[in-house]
Amino acid sequence: MTRTKAMAWAGGASYLLMVGLLVWGAPRAPGTVHAAGSLLAASLLAGMVRRMPLSALAMTLIGFTAVVVGPSSSAYERLTASYPSQFLSYLAVDLVLGFVVATCARWASIVAVAVSFTVQLLVIGGFTYGGDLIANGVIALLAMAAACMAGLLTRERREHAAALRSQEVAEAVTAERLRIARELHDMVAHSIGIIAIQAGVGSRVIETQPSEAGEALRTIEATSRQTLSSLRRTLVALRQADGGAIGSERSPLAPSPGLANVEQLAAATGGAGVRVDVRRSGQQRPLPADIDLAAYRIVQEALTNVVRHADTGYCRVAVDFGDEELSVEVVDDGCGATWNGSAARPAQGFGIVGMRERVGLLGGHLSAGPRPEGGFRVAARLPLPEPAEVAVEAR
Fold this sequence. Notes:
It comes from Microbispora catharanthi. This protein is α+β, with helices and mostly antiparallel strands and 395 residues long.
């Protein structure tokens, strides 16, 4: 940083030296030559304009004022000089002023505009002869206004772009938090429901049926260990994604669950007292990871709600692998009117909401509600991508 500033100051000093040589080294040269030469010398201020725009503006004001008030070749030229020749050098001042307005603080921009306007007005008023005073002043004012307007537009565009980036970051953070909330809800709610059911069973039969109570405790232990392991994998994944893993600890992450794990989910639900009949149809094939995970989470949430709300001992899970879509259906014959999300009792959790969000993100459709014959039904349709060999044949 010190080296770049030193180079910028060296450019500023070189600019002042060149202007001095132009004005006092060639006093008989025409004013147009002085103005054009000073404009070319202003390129030496490029580094200072980028890093110290206010200092660059002060140097340009000093240099170009020296060009205007310096010695001229003849009195006739001073009397007949017009704005394009005598005051041409102030165009570079206006360009630097526009950069100041675009990049510096508002108070600094206001002070810079006021100082620049005052200096140009005094110089034009003191060194304009004949009837060109008003014309030169108007031209100088218009040039300064154009530069300031360009600077303001650049500032507004930059601030608008920064606001859009901030909004995108906020939306991305919100979406990620919602995703994590869905994952944690789907992961914990099912296990906690099973643990609560088994704890209730164990407390009731611990004195009369010790073996049943022991079985309930073993189910609670297995379920809690599995949930703890899943939570740990999730937290490790979040730490690794943020680069915040402690030391060199990198725990291997298990693959995300999918429809291949539905039987394990059904067995865990059976341990909670609800027998699950899993039926598969269609040509089973590997699915995209997001669709596979979404289908698994829908089944998991639906089974959780069956255990907690349906008051039944049986439910059915149907998975159909269609050509264009994957259909998942969970049906029970319990108390559908009191199930979470029904019309009779409004939903107080986030199960149905989470399922709808998952399905909506994949462009599918979800229906959940009581059945006319009793019980509750959750059905999801997830569109499947076209198989690669079919797409090749179509092309």
